[in-house]
Amino acid sequence: MNSSQEKIKKMMSYRWIIWGVLVLSYVIVFFHRLAIGVVREDLVETFGISGTTFANIGSTYFYAYMLMQIPSGILADTLGARKTVAIGTLMAGIGSILFGVAPNLLMVFLGRLLVGIGVSVVFISILKVQSRWFKESEFATMSGITSFVGNMGGAMAQTPLAIMVAYFTWRSTFTAIGVLSVLLAIVSYIVVRNNPKDMGLPTIEEIEGKDISSKKMENPPLLKSLYQALTNKYTWPGFFVFTGFFGAYVALTGTWGISYLVEVYNIEPSTAPNYFTVAVLGLAIGSIVIGRFSDRIKSRRLPMILFGGVYTLCWGIIVFVNGGKPPIAMLYPLFFILGFTCSTFVLGWACGKEVNHPAIAGISTSIVNIGGFLGGAVLPPILGWVFDTYGGQLEATVLFQKAFLYCFIFVAIGFVFTFLVKETNCKNIYNEIK
């Protein structure tokens, strides 16, 4: 084997090591995203907080994550994924430790804020690394696999977290996760490289024999890039689909779902997270299946309409069947299908990338990504307001039906926007629509 072949082999192997380290950071992202719902009773008991305050603690993560999406794209493009993920994961670790040892509510909010800011940079950085270390034809598949593995962190934030909290207390658990995050930040800095060239290895373009010298596109100026993506009307349908779909999903699986099962169905608090582990697994599997299905039939819009319709139907069942209390036998399959079809929003990232200039893929996908975290930040406190306002007046089933009606409205609005998605046939069409 000659030197050139050895370098190609090393590049094709080392990229998996880089991706593996980064995706571990992404597991931490999902863990923190959904963990707050499991420790609700512990926080209420420790700090004596109301439903609205609890929801605001959860939303702090999403506000931070949402506001950091465009800066995350800029950091990944300028500072590089290596330093961006290392610093972000370190900050998330410090935030988790602070959350775990917090002596008062202010420190709880500060810890949650640091976690949200820290983990917000991970996903966009992974997309950036994928664009440098993997073939273009592998991008959708790798994004689906990344989402699948990341969602395992969400699964950890359900039953496994409930078990850890029961044995080690919520404080010790979040402190330990923080220490693990700090160690992972160090590993990220040591292992990750932004580009094969950083290791003297051939790029994907060189391996594929592409003539990049004549096709090289310089990034437009930052403000011009941002303006270009923001003013492109086809960027926004994916944004609103993500807002409605993911906001409702988070409100159920990450904030109020455990309380719903305990108070409406009298399910034990230790057992209730099992139901949402199923939903998280559905989301993880759906991310891969729907992404591959979309690539295979070379359509974005049709899968979003089909699966989005089923997702809307799932929420209709939760809110309207049997007065807001579907038969308990339905819950496991219902939550799995709900999670599976919710993952329709992953196609929004591809749509955002495919309707904008190829050189600003980071910025265009980060704009779409803001939508989900806007929904995750806004919707849970709306439900918290319902619980605080009507909690002493309405029976539990009616109370949750009234609250979850807002989730259904968000989802229904998101579903309407699936019909406004610009069909790209799974290729960049910017030159055709500009």
Secondary structure blueprint with pairings:
Layout: H1 3-35, H2 40-47, H3 51-67, H4 69-78, H5 81-101, H6 105-119, H7 122-133, H8 139-156, H9 159-191, H10 204-207, H11 222-230, H12 236-265, H13 273-297, H14 301-320, H15 331-342, H16 346-354, H17 361-390, H18 396-418, H19 430-433
Helix pairs in contact: 1-7, 1-8, 1-9, 3-6, 3-17, 4-7, 4-17, 5-6, 5-7, 5-9, 7-8, 8-13, 12-16, 12-17, 12-18, 13-15, 14-15, 14-18, 16-17, 17-18
Transmembrane segments: 16-35, 47-68, 80-99, 105-127, 148-168, 174-192, 234-252, 272-290, 302-323, 329-352, 359-383, 403-421
Membrane topology: Multi-pass membrane protein
InterPro entries: MFS, MFS_dom, MFS_trans_sf, OPA_Antiporter, Sugar_P_transporter
What series of H and E elements makes up the topology?
HHHHHHHHHHHHHHHHHHH
Residue windows where pLDDT falls under 50 for at least 5 positions: 213-217
What's the quaternary structure here?
single chain
- Intertermini distance: 47 Å
Q: Architecture of the largest domain, according to CATH?
A: Up-down Bundle
Work out the strand percent: under 5%
Shape: globular
| Strand-pairing-aware structural class | mainly alpha
What's this entry about, in short?
This protein is mainly α.
